[in-house]
Amino acid sequence: MREASFVKQNKEKWILFEKALHGNIKINPDDLATYYIQLTNDLSYAQTYYPESKTLAYLNSLTTEAHQKIYKNKTESRSKIKNFWLYEFPLFFGQHQKTLLYTFLFFFVFVLIGVISTLNDDSFIRLILGNHYVNMTIKNIEKGEPMAVYRSGSNIGAFLGITINNIKVGFYAFAMGAIFSVGTIFILLRNGIMLGSFVTFFYKYGLLEKTSTIWLHGTIEIWVIIIAGCAGLAMGNSFLFPKTYTRRVSFMKGAKDGLKIMISTLPFFIIAGFIEGFITRYGDFMPSFIAYTIIFLSLTLVVYYYIVYPIIINKKHAKVHRTEK
């Protein structure tokens, strides 16, 4: 992009930010933080493409002044964290919701593949889950304890082990996006087929209702793996479709965006691990309405934070921006 076009495209935003810093107009603190993030991104772009230009000098000066005013008091660190979770991330994630939709559709198709394959081939489940796990589960079913595997180990040990493993799987799904998004799609394929095969396996034994025990923790766990896949596709697609950026700059931006998405999943992985370590093991003895309430609340939490809330925040932001103009 030519420097003149870059300036023309962003000039109004910079002037608005400058006026807000000097107290000439009132602006919501959350919006100020958002503008600051955009400003630093513009500065990075100018440093790459317009070194020693007047535009770079102006952005350097404005960014320095903004940094001093926004971060002059370290007691704001807590509010910064709160701002990230409640405003900055939902506002940012609004631009990746389409990628999340594609990721979900990929995963859904892969689940269907697992379901159809397991329905039509009894040996398929062994190919996917392994003979040891299938034989162990069949023995548990014969003993009337199909979910006994979730009662093994201590609560804390299971919680820590499961949480760490899930985080590893999530970051692996994200990192594999570097292979032109194909790596992430492969991880989604593997996990989707496993899920479809697992649920169908219990269905064929007439125990589909028992899978509610799995969904106690699996509701969040599966959704967060899909979101990790979204992070991987955001990174991989940034290289495949750089738009007006060079592939290197676009990929760096995509990797940064993907990492931010992954950071947002950490609390959800911890919640899923806690449920699996402390609650799922009692699923067989739990009243159905309690189990389904936990599943419903888990689904509501994820859907609201990653789909509904970003839409609300972006609409609010757009409305405030139009009012300020």
TrEMBL record:
Matches recorded under InterPro entries: SpoIIM-like
Q: What Pfam families does the annotation carry?
A: SpoIIM
- Alphabetical keyword list: Membrane, Transmembrane, Transmembrane helix
Q: Please verify whether the record's keywords include Hydrolase.
A: no
Transmembrane ranges, per UniProt, are 100-119, 169-202, 222-241, 261-283, 289-312
- Family matches, as PANTHER family: SLR1478 PROTEIN
Please report the name of this protein according to its UniProt entry. Answer: Membrane protein
* Organism in which the protein naturally occurs: Neptunitalea chrysea
Lineage of the native species? Bacteria, Pseudomonadati, Bacteroidota, Flavobacteriia, Flavobacteriales
